[in-house]
Every structure is written in structure tokens, then in C-alpha cells.
Amino acid sequence: GDSVNQTEGPVTVSEGALMTLNCIYQTADSAPFLFWYIQHLNKAPQFLLKGSTSDQKPKSKGFQATLVKRDSSFHLQKQAVQASDSAVYYCALSDTVREGCWGAEHKP
Known about the structure:
By secondary structure, this protein is mostly beta strands.
């Protein structure tokens, strides 16, 4: 089945440093969608960015992830992190079928 292995637990950053968080995924889908979420202390998780075969280097709020299909990886990076970037980060995986269904549900 589908699975994701990632850097786990709370991430405490040193201001100005480069942060890299690892995400390795496994799926039979040839065109998966990968996601990163951020969860600050006592807050709900928030969507950060989404990658796909058509958008392999998504960027958002100073973060960038790189989808490398041959490595099945979707690592997240941020240059010059700030104290406010200390949080729990989640990598998630979705196949194209479910993505398509969600899209259909949200159409008027």
C-alpha cells in the first residue's frame, strides 16, 4: 500500500540556518500528489504546499519542496529559517484518483 516516511517530531530551528526535512514515499501511482503541512504548538495543521509530476518544485511562504520520482522523495527546505518556523511538519500522499474525486465534489 501507500506509505510515507518523514522527519518526525517537533522541529526546533536555529535562526538563519537552512532547514531540510526529509520525506520518502511509496505508491503504485505513477503521478501522485505530495503535500507538506505545518502545525504550530496548540494550533491545527495548516496546508503548506503541494507537489505533483506537473509541479515538481512548489514554493510557498519561503519554503520549497522538490519531488524526485526516481528517489520517491519530496524533501522540504527553507533558507534562513526564523523562530516562528519551529513546528511539527507533516508530509502526506494522495493518489490521482482520490484527487480527481475531491475535485469533482467541489465543482458547482
